[in-house]
Known about the structure:
Elements: H1 3-20, H2 28-38, E1 44-49, E2 54-58, H3 60-65, H4 76-83, E3 104-108, E4 114-123, E5 129-137, H5 139-153, H6 163-178, E6 182-191, H7 194-201, H8 203-219, E7 227-231, E8 234-242, H9 249-261, E9 278-285, H10 292-308, E10 314-316, H11 323-330, E11 334-338, E12 344-349, H12 366-376, E13 386-390, H13 398-403, E14 409-414, H14 421-436, E15 440-446, H15 453-456, E16 461-464, H16 471-480, E17 485-488, H17 494-503, E18 507-509, H18 530-539, H19 547-555, H20 558-568, H21 581-588, H22 590-605, H23 612-627, H24 637-646, H25 649-652, H26 657-662, H27 668-676, H28 682-692, H29 696-705, H30 710-728
Parallel strand pairs: 9-10, 12-13, 13-14, 14-15, 15-16, 16-17, 17-18
Antiparallel strand pairs: 1-2, 1-5, 3-4, 4-5, 6-8, 6-9, 7-8, 11-12, 11-18
Helix pairs in contact: 1-2, 7-8, 11-29, 12-30, 18-19, 18-22, 19-21, 20-21, 23-24, 23-30, 24-27, 28-29
Amino acid sequence: MSFSDIIEKAHQATDRALRKFSRKADFRSVLGDISGILDPHDMEIIVTRGRGCEIIFTNARAEERLYNEQGDSFTCKAVFSKHFPGLCDNCPYGGKTNTADGTSFEIDDSDGRTFTVRRNTIKWADGKPATIFMMRDITSQIEANKRLYNLAYIDQLTNVPNRQRLKEDFVEIEEKISAGEISGILALFDLDNFKTVNDTYGHNTGDVVLRRLTEYLQESPHFAGKIYRLGGDEFIVVMSNATTRFDFIDELKHHYKGVLSTALRAYTLPNIDVKCTLSIGVSIFPKHGTNLTDLLRKADISLYQAKAAGRNQICYFEDQYDTAQKFKDMFINIQPVLLGVGKTFGYELVDRSQGNDNEDDGTVILNEFNRTLDALGLDDIENNLHYFISYTKKLLSPTVLRNIPRDKFIVQISISKNPTKPVIQHNLTILNELRDKGYKLAISGMDSASPVLELLNIVDYCKFAASDRNHIKQKTIIARNQRVKFIAVNIDTTEDFIKAKETGYHMYQGYYFNQPIIEKKTKEISPLKVNYFRLMKLSITDDYMDFKEISSIISSDVALSYKLLRILNSAAVGLRNVASIENAVAYIGEEALKKWIAVLALRGIAEDKPLELVRMSLVRARFGELLAPTFRIKRNPQHVFMVGMLSLLHIALEMSKEQLLEDIPIADEIAASLLTRTGIYSDLLRFYENYEYANWDAVSQFVEENHLDSSMVSDAYIAAVKWYNDLTAT
């Protein structure tokens, strides 16, 4: 029965009593009626009245509490409030309460048990008002809820919050980050040598070490209430501050490094030789992300770096590299692997140590994978592309395996000429282990004069050494190993491509599709490409775009109309119920329309060329546009976009640059930059090429000369790739 039901029945009983008895009547029978209503319930009930707090009624459960009470005064203040400290504070006669009549509150009794109390004013049997307190013991309910909470949110070994609690707590943190209220760090703690302790001394000993760590941290005001256990020997610490506290990111990093360093100590036990130190990886919000997934991933990467650097230290995400080294470690320069004309199979992720035979040289590090995943958009889009990466032992570590979509990556091992049997066996062991982990396999550096058949029998892809020019033997090996896909390397000219195709190669790696035409020639544009070219000419202008003529061109071409309506229906644009092509053109807007035309026109014009031409052109265009406002000397973003977009168009059209630019009305400074490399945007063209070919010294020099921030440049490149992926996904 609810409180309201009890009160209603009490009112009904007193009303019946008043009708039945006179004011001088004996109320014993009346109180009997009330007791019959109030006694059966699992609560203690008292009724008081007046400033003297006279108790005029108690039910059976309340009487049990008062059974041994002694004294002359039978008042609530003298008797009952001793059992319920704070009861008077919620009574209207106590003079201190703001508690509204009919509301509930909680108090503890003198035995430490918790009660929920409901207070109401009622009309007593004599017609005068009285106050009724109804108190239910909820201690068991609280304890049960606490047990359920602990099971759901508290790690039972260390008594600190678990991963689920972290997820729920971080929802509020994300809201504050997004609102610009806070910044801070997410630090991932990992005990060094903990596995050795478990294996040598047993899991019970390992459990004691984990408790020792958390007890020490919880005693510190820096860490108390901020630590969560992810599992095993991994813990998370989240610390935040008002965004106004630090003026510069270096100040924030210095402050938290000082705080975190207090945790760097050996956590061990008596009579145990192995000491567990602490490695800490740190990501910063919002600099490295605003959601828990991104921040955890980047803290995990920096933790791996801390361990690789010697353990027992703190490492911030991307903290230890200078400008040139950062670009090398970002691992975002990719070289296309093509199936032939117009079809991209995937990319090789070219690192700074390519060709180094030392498998432990750190060729692939987690930071590189993180930036690569961002640049390639693997977290954002579904695609069928594959990515070749050089082998390192780190690929088999649990941390790397958690961060890499292995179904997309092909691990490549480089073999030397005439390897010994022990070396072959060692490579076979590695390849088998990689295959067991779900990777596809490739070998590079194969010598056609002495092919290693044991390796060919296990790999999926093979590259002959770049210096191997024996096409006759290559052709024989390719024909005899039809299960393996062979990739021709250094295919940088049309002649190279034709020769490789005749040899029987399945794929081609290089920039043979990206070679300028040496001699001027005039080439008529195919009728199928005329509309695309007309659209491009109309969009390349600093003046007002002629929407009417653009609409007319699109309307006259069914394929163009379909593609425009499809992009308007995409998630990126989100428009619906477009009545006409002219309306569609107006809806999309001038700037967006220019970019859409650029994508559409380039793809249409280069339809018989590798799609990489379009990709490179548009990534260059968007990359430069994003950088334009940040240069020491400001650049016109629209002009920068056009320079990138047009930089490879002459190759797609099989024209000379001069012939192409005669037909396109562009600004003189754009034309000069494309033709002579002495225009105001010529340095950008060199920058694009250096970035694509991973000439990091030249890239770093450009960054410094233009007063750019290296991380900002990397972010702009990633954003450009994602922009292209988004547009071409429609």
